[in-house]
Specification:
Pfam families: cobW, CobW_C. The protein contains 10 helices and 16 strands.
């Protein structure tokens, strides 16, 4: 497969009982999900029975919607290689959805997609979609650090069972999700079609629209000057100052002047090599010195995607670098000061 022919992969994750399977059943009937390969941990755990048509082999079945369903027996990279082989053999697959079990940490899966050379040749991460249950979501976030990670690294947050939740509970949950992940607006799962694809400007065919959304979501402010704005996630709700996840937070930095790639790249590599455990995810659209087109970067802990050159800046939008950091126990000032110092050194 050529670089452009890499299949986009959506990671569908979420709390136990949040309704991922119900959502998946519904999604697979949507027109735009034709030709999806679904990877699940075990067929038994996921109620796709009424969609099953024929068993192709032990770990793969064909679904009526023109989709393929495979189980992940242990090794994700191996399961993905099986899908790449099918595409080479002419099967019309256009995307992959990986459905994970309720409390899986999404980071190792993201690392496999980015760090495993064979996988990265054939697949590109399109986004992480996290399903949150409106009834139990707040309690799950309080108790489970994996649930906080799932919400923090999401590119799209979908809230299920909103009709069953009390309004005040719902308001608290939405506030909590915004604190953990300020760059993604939670959406309620209702009767309208739900998009879980085209979330990453580097992977999406409709790049300009996604790029606009992304820059808007990252809170890029209008006007001049170098902007640093913080959507704080320091909501210690008073009861327990040591709550494990009060330390996970996200913020966006933006820079009006073009950045020197050498300085920025050196600093990001150093940061993630030394503090990879603290940097859960970094995403950015960059305006680099000497480069007319936007460059997308994406890192998960100490693993980086090769930077992607995007076709063009969206018309009418200011050219500006926007970087989103999702970190744990890493003060924002450390990141800001590091970028400033390395960029200044690269320019001198």
């Amino acid at each position: 497969m050529q670089a452009e022919a890499r299949l986009p992969v959506t990671l569908l994750t979420g709390f136990l009982g949040a309704g991922k399977t119900t959502l998946l059943n519904r999604l697979l009937r949507q027109e735009d999900m034709q030709g999806t390969a679904v990877l699940v941990n075990e067929f038994g755990e996921i109620g796709l029975d009424h969609l099953l048509v024929e068993a192709l082999e032990e770990e793969a079945v064909l679904l009526q919607a023109g989709c393929l369903c495979c189980t992940i027996r242990g090794d994700l990279a191996q399961a993905l290689e099986g899908i790449a082989r099918r595409v080479r053999d002419g099967q019309a697959l256009r995307r992959v959805v990986i459905e994970t079990t309720g409390l899986a940490d999404p980071l190792p899966i993201l690392q496999t997609l980015m760090a495993d050379a064979a996988t990265a040749r054939n697949f590109v991460l399109d986004g992480v979609v996290t399903v949150v249950d409106a009834v139990n979501g707040l309690a799950t976030l309080e108790r489970q650090s994996e649930a906080v990670r799932q919400a923090a690294v999401a590119d799209r947050l979908l809230v299920s069972k909103a009709d069953l939740a009390a309004p005040e509970g719902m308001a608290l949950l939405l506030a909590r999700l915004r604190a953990v992940n300020p760059v993604v607006t939670p959406r309620l799962i209702d009767a309208s079609p739900i998009a879980i694809t085209g979330l990453d400007p580097a992977a999406a065919p409709q790049r300009e629209a996604v790029l606009r959304d992304w820059m808007a979501a990252a809170g890029t402010p209008e006007g001049g000057g170098a902007h640093h704005h913080h959507h704080g996630a320091h909501h210690h709700h008073g009861h327990d100052p040591n709550r494990h996840d009060a330390r996970i937070h996200a913020f966006a930095l933006s820079f009006d002047a073009p950045l020197p790639w050498e300085g920025l790249a050196t600093w990001l590599e150093m940061l993630t090599a030394t503090r990879g455990d603290a940097v859960l995810r970094v995403k950015g659209i960059l305006d680099l010195e000497g480069q007319d087109r936007p460059v997308a970067i994406h890192g998960v802990q100490s693993v980086w995607h090769a930077p992607t050159l995007l076709p063009a800046w969206p018309a009418g939008m200011p050219r500006r670098s926007t970087l989103v950091f999702i970190s744990r126990d890493l003060p924002r000032a450390v990141i800001e000061d590091g970028i400033a110092a390395f960029c200044a050194a690269a320019r001198s």
